[in-house]
Amino acid sequence: MALKKPNHAPKGAEDVPHADLAALTLALASPEAGERRRAARELGAFPEAGPRLCAHLGSEPAASVRAVILTTLIRIKSPAVVEGLLPLLRSEDSALRNAAIEVLQEMPAEVEPHVADLLADPDSDVRILTVNMLSLLPHPKAPDWLAEVVARDPHVNVCAAAVDGLAEIGNESAIAPLQALAARFPEVPFIRFAAAAAIRRIGGS
After folding, report:
1. What pTM was estimated for this model as a whole?
2. How far does CA 113 lie from the centroid of its chain?
3. How far, in Å, CA of 79 to CA of 85, rounded?
């Protein structure tokens, strides 16, 4: 029997027993993919299950179960979910990294407090993934974050990813950093062409 979400319970009804949360958590370890899918779906009624679902995502072998977990995490949408997903940006599994980014893109307000640290991460690959996420993040500060990357990041590949993002979402404040980028990497000719193309897309001369 499917569990009802706590906020759908009749007025005055008791909370869903904690044992149900425990049982669903145990069901995530079931050998049956269908049972794991059910558990992942019904855990959406429990916001506190977010970190557990994030942790399970990395070890879940079935793509169909992963898909349900991702949908449930988007439903839960909390700071705890963001904190649980950010370590996956360092995963060796590219599909897992991309899945984490897809969910994070649905939580712009919850992601914002982590942006500065992500863009200062010593691992350039993490910074590139962050830039890719920001390029699709529906947040008003996203263009400014990308412009800051272009202005300051020391790694050419991180800057190149930010240039690509600014070509899609950049505004006039990005033009000056883009114009200065070629001088920062004079030994990388493609940067000059990429920056010029982004400026044209934004509308600069």
Report:
1. 0.84
2. 13
3. 10
**Do 81 and 51 contact (CB within 8 A), yes or no?**
yes
- Using alpha carbons only, what angle is made at residue 71 by residues 123 and 77, rounded to the nearest 5 degrees? 70
d(CA 22, CA 145): 41
Helix (H, G, I), strand (E, B) or coil at 116: helix
Angle between helix 94-104 and helix 124-135 axes, rounded to 10 deg: 40
Give me the tens of pLDDT residue by residue for the chain, a chain 205 residues long: 333 334 444 333 344 444 489 999 999 999 999 999 999 999 999 999 999 999 999 899 999 999 999 999 999 999 999 999 999 999 999 999 999 999 999 999 999 999 999 999 999 999 999 999 999 999 999 999 999 999 999 999 999 999 999 999 999 999 999 999 999 999 999 999 999 999 999 986 5
d(CA 198, CA 184): 17
Say if residues 183 and 175 touch (Cβ distance below 8 Å).
Answer: no
**Nearest by Cα to 55 from 37, 81, 30:** 81
Chain center to CA of 106? 7
The type of residue at 72 is T
